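fwd from M.: "can u put these together and see what the complex looks like"

so here's what she sent:
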Amino acid sequence: MKLEDSHISLAHGNGGRFMRELIDEVFARHLSNDTLDTNADSVALSLPGERIMFTTDGFTVQPLEFPGGSIGSLAVHGTTNDLAVAGADPLFLSLNAFIEEGVEVALLERIVADLGRAATETGVRVAAGDTKVLPRGQGGGIYLATTGIGVYRHPGVLAMNEIRAGDVMLVSGPIGDHGIAVMLAREQFGLRGDIRSDAASVLPLTRALRAVPGVRFMRDPTRGGLVSVAHEIARATGLEITLDEPSIPVRPAVTTVCDMLGYDPFYLACEGRVVAVVAPDAAAEALRAWKALPGGGDASVIGEMRALVHGGRVLLKTELGGLRILEELEDDPLPRIC
Amino acid sequence: MKLEDSHISLAHGNGGRFMRELIDEVFARHLSNDTLDTNADSVALSLPGERIMFTTDGFTVQPLEFPGGSIGSLAVHGTTNDLAVAGADPLFLSLNAFIEEGVEVALLERIVADLGRAATETGVRVAAGDTKVLPRGQGGGIYLATTGIGVYRHPGVLAMNEIRAGDVMLVSGPIGDHGIAVMLAREQFGLRGDIRSDAASVLPLTRALRAVPGVRFMRDPTRGGLVSVAHEIARATGLEITLDEPSIPVRPAVTTVCDMLGYDPFYLACEGRVVAVVAPDAAAEALRAWKALPGGGDASVIGEMRALVHGGRVLLKTELGGLRILEELEDDPLPRIC
C-alpha cells in the first residue's frame, strides 16, 4: 500500500496527482486485467458475436462490511447475478465509486480487494472505472455502481411472458439470510447471530438449468424479496400466484429474528438465490440439478401459477392451510441492504 | 406527472410499489426507447460486429442545474464524449441514480428530462438503469453514473503512444466555460455572469477528424482541464509539451473571473471541447474541419511536443515570451464541477 494518506480527501477526486495515486494504488492494483486501462477514456471489448446482454445496479449497503461479504463483493454479485438470471455469462463490468471525504483508505482497500476477488471468482473483468470524492457529510462512506456486459448462453427463451398457467415456482435455497445478516451487522438491535449473508454468484445455479427444458424465467430475489418477484410476475402475466408457506426454505435463525422484530422473511432480500418459473413437468429435473450443487441442498418447489378472472394477486397458503394475500411492498422493511 | 408525492422518500427506493411508480413516471417516461425494459434484469443489445468500446463516469456536480445544462445532460455528454474522443460512435448507456431522500420530484423530473433530451440529441439509448434512495443527509441531492457502449469508427489508430516529437496540440474551442459557469451558479461568490457551460456532445468534432489523416490522439479536457490532459500525455510519452499562452482560446469573461478569484483557466474543466494531437502536416486540415462546425470557430493550435532529455514536463510559453512550468494539479481549484 503506497498511498501516502490514510484518509480520503477531496484532492483524491480532483483529476490530478492524488487522484492518479488513488486509482493506481487502490483500484488498478486489485482490479488489474488485460482489458482495464486506467489511462484510456474508453477501452475496446472482445465480445463473441452473439446476443450481448447489459445491466446495471447501484449499491448503498450499510454497514459497508457484514458477515459473508461487503459492498465490494455485493457490487460484483448483484450485477453479474442479474446477467446470470437473464441467461447470460457475465464478461465485463464497469465500476463507479462515490467515496466520502474522510473514508479510511484501509477500509476502501479491503472493499476494492473484496470486489476484485469476487470478480475473479465469477470470471468477469472490471474493464472501466471512475471515482468521485464526495464532501464529508454528503455521502454514506462508499457508494458503488456496476454495469455488466454478458453473452446470452441459455438454449431457450427466458422471459416473463413465457410463463403459463400451471407453471411452478422454485427457489434455490433459504431466503432472507442477506437481509437479516446486514440488519444484525448494524448492531442497533443489540442482537448477535451466526447468520451470514448469502451473497454469492448464482451463475452455477443458472448454468445448471440450461440443460433443463421448460425453464421459462429466472430472477434473483433482491430488494423486496420473494414477494416482489412474485408481484412482478403476477403483474406482467395476469396470473395468480400461490406460494406454499411450508415449502419455502427459511433458516430457523432467520425465522427467530423475524418473529422477534416483526419482519416477514418473504420480503427480505437475498443476494445469492434464484427464483425460477418452470413448466410443471420440468420441476423435478430442475430441482435435481440445483440440489446437486453446493448451496442448492434446500432448493424447493414453492408455488404455482393459476389463470383466474381476478388475476394478478399473490397469495400465501399458510402452514395452517389458510390463504392470505401478500400485498406489494410499500413500507421499507430494511433500508440499505444492497 | 402522475407520481403522487412531491418529495422523494426512502420508500421510493425499496423495490416495491412506490419505487415502481418512480421508475415508470419519471425515468421510463423520459428515457423510453426500444431497448430499455424496466421489467428486465438485463436487456439484449444489438451491436454491429466490430470493435466495441466501453467507458464509465460518475457525476456529482453542485448545483444540479447551471446555465447551459444540468447533472442530467452532463451525465450523457460526459460519458458519450469519452467514447467520441476514443474514436467511437456511442450507442447505449446505462444510468445509475443515487437520489437523496427529500429531493423534490419536480427537480428530479427536470433533470431526467434533460438527460433524455441529451441522449436523443447524441443518438444514444439508455438501455439499463437503477435507482437507489439515500437517507437524508447522506447524499448531495442527486448523484448519477453512466456507462457507455459504442463502436469504434475512426479509420486509424487513436492512442497516446501514437504521439511523436514534433506533433502539435489543438483545442476545439474556448476553455474553462463549464468550470466558471458552475462556480458562478453556486452564487457563493456574489458574482453574476453570462457565462454558460460548454457542456455538449463533441461527437461532431471527433467525427470531423475521421477524414483527416495524421490524427494521433483525442481527449476531452474535463476534471483538471487542459493541463491535466497535457500531463497525462507527457507522462505516457516522455515528451515535453509547450503550450502557447496567446494561442489558447479563453473567453474574456472567463479570464476576468479567473483574474478576480485567482484561478488558472488552464486547469478548469470543459465539457464540450476536444484536445487533439496531430502530425504537424495535419494541423491545418484539422483546424479547417473544426472551424467549419458550429462551436468550432475558435479552434486553435495551442502547443507542440518535443523530445528532450528531461522529458515529461508541461511548459507554458507566456504572452510575454517567458516559459513557466505548469505543475500537475494537486489542490482542487473547483470541487464538484462534474
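replying to her w this: Residues 58 and 145 of chain A are 4 Å apart (CA to CA).
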